[in-house]
Amino acid sequence: MGDDSIPYTIRAFEAKNDSPRSAIQLDVGVSSDFQLDDDLPVPTPDAIPGSIMSAFDNDWYKFEAVKDNTYIIDLIYEGGAGWYLEMQLENNCGKTACDLLKWAHARTQFYEQIEYKATKTETVWVKVFSFGGIPSDPDNAGDYTIHVRWGNNERNIAAPIYVGWAPVTATVNEEHDELWYTFSAQQGTTYIIKANFPNPPSTALEIALKDSSTTSEVGSCTAKTSTLTQCRYTATTTEQMWIYIHCGGAPYYPCAELLTLQLSACSQAPDDNDDPTQAEAIVVNGKSHSGEASEKDEDWFSFSAKQGTSYTITLKLNKGSEGDLDLGLYQGCSSEECDDELAISGEDGGEEVIEWDAAETETLWVKVYSVNDPCPIKYKIKIEGQDPPCSYQCPDFSVPKKDCVEKFKQCECQGGYKANNEEETCEACDFETCPLYSVRKTQCVTNAGKHCKCLPSTKMECTAAGDCECKPCDTFQCGDFASIKEGVQCVTKFKHCECEPGYKKKDGECVPK
Question: In what order do the strands lie in the sheet with 178-185?
Answer without folding.
Answer: 159-160, 178-185, 239-247, 205-210, 217-218
